[in-house]
């Protein structure tokens, strides 16, 4: 990913030393609904009042948003209760309509991020615009697709830029509506640390009872903010009812969240951390040495199989090995999920290396 020139989040948001908070209903349903929700949020630390104006829905018979007619409602709610406003845009026409009504922040949704043509059209509509723009991760766990969307918006001249981590659609995922895949969020932070990242626990969980845990995890990782869907009467919401909370519940969540500092200048902390990190470095080198030794044994196995015309993969052996290692890992206090993920990577690379050796002509 190319280097992006962006403004620090504190410059465009005015928020420093605490997380940026974006809250409001999934969808604008009526002017009265927006005004009441905003009124109940006005005394909380909400920086942007959000509402969906246009809703990308999977099936056509579901509520797809009020459309342009709801923009004056959102703008009025923001003015009357002293909050800046935010909404999602999916087309150039959405951008133009939102800007005409003075919406203060725009974001590009996950279903739009997956389409570079759509993102480019939005980028073209944003040329010369100074409003902040946030880009949600694509529905698929595709980091280049996410970063590519950011590059398009950045090349349009947008400097108040950030991303929203809202989880990914993953086959077999059952606990979350969209698997958070924190490892992808962490990798994004590694390659582009200056871009602020806001987490959307509502879309990750799909359930209001899990929002606080995911929000706290985001804070534990040092992310810059949260977007939480908040409705005056969540059970009666016209879209995504299960993942919305009342304004009062949002207040409780924000009150209980612990915001972590990036570091501490305490001398004792720094000394202890340095010592512990040195131990980690030493153990990692030992771990890599062991993996290299293991791979050399794998290569001997491949030679033996080639000489005897035996297939690379023996499913029964792999099943027995995995069962044994998971049991041993659990006895050592390691989670089965962690051990299984680790051994799946090790086994995949072992099979790849064996296949590579077995398909080399021994006479060459």
Properties at a glance:
alpha/beta; TIM Barrel; 364 residues; Chorismate Mutase Domain, subunit A; 14 helices; elongated; 8 strands; eight-stranded parallel barrel; 2 domains
Label the overall shape. Answer: elongated
CATH fold label of the largest domain: TIM Barrel
Q: Stretches where pLDDT falls below 50 for ≥5 residues?
A: none
Main beta sheet: strand number and arrangement? Answer: 8 strands, parallel, barrel
Strands across the major sheet, in which order?
Answer: 1-2-3-4-5-6-7-8
The level of helicity is: 40-55%
Could you give a short description of this structure?
This protein is of the alpha/beta class and 364 residues long.
Give your account of this protein's structure.
The protein has 364 residues and is of the alpha/beta class. Helices cover 49% and strands 10% of the residues. It has an eight-stranded parallel beta barrel with strand order 1-2-3-4-5-6-7-8, surrounded by five helices. The two termini are 41 Å apart.
């Amino acid at each position: 990913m190319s280097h992006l020139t962006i403004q620090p989040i504190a410059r465009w948001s005015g928020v420093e030393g605490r997380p940026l908070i974006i809250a409001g209903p999934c969808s604008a349903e009526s002017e009265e609904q927006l005004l009441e929700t905003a009124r109940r949020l006005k005394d909380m630390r909400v920086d942007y009042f959000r509402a969906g104006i246009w809703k990308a829905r999977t099936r056509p018979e579901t509520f797809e948003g009020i459309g342009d007619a709801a923009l004056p409602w959102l703008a009025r709610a923001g003015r009357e209760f002293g909050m800046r406003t935010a909404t999602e845009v999916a087309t150039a026409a959405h951008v133009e309509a939102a800007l005409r009504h003075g919406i203060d922040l725009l974001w590009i949704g996950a279903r739009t991020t997956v389409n570079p043509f759509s993102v480019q059209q939005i980028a073209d509509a944003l040329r010369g615009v100074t409003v902040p723009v946030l880009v949600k991760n694509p529905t698929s766990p595709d980091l280049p697709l996410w970063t590519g969307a950011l590059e398009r918006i950045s090349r349009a001249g947008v400097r108040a830029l950030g991303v929203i981590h809202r989880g990914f659609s993953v086959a077999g995922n059952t606990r979350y509506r969209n698997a958070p895949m924190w490892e992808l969020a962490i990798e994004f932070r590694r390659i582009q640390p200056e871009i602020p990242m806001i987490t959307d626990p509502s879309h990750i969980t799909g359930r209001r009872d899990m929002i606080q845990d995911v929000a706290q995890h985001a804070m534990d990782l040092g992310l810059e903010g949260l977007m939480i869907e908040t409705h005056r009467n969540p059970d009666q919401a016209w879209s995504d009812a299960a993942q919305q909370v009342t304004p009062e519940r949002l207040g409780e969540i924000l009150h209980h969240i612990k915001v972590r500092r990036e570091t501490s200048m305490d001398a004792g902390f720094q000394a202890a951390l340095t010592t512990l990190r040195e131990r980690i470095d030493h153990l990692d080198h030992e771990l890599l040495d062991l993996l290299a030794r293991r791979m050399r044994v794998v290569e001997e196995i491949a030679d033996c199989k080639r000489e005897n015309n035996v297939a690379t993969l023996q499913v029964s052996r792999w099943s027995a090995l995995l069962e044994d290692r998971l049991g041993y890992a659990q006895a050592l206090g390691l989670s089965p999920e962690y051990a299984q993920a680790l051994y799946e990577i090790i086994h995949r690379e072992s099979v790849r290396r064996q296949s590579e050796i077995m398909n080399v002509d021994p006479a060459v």
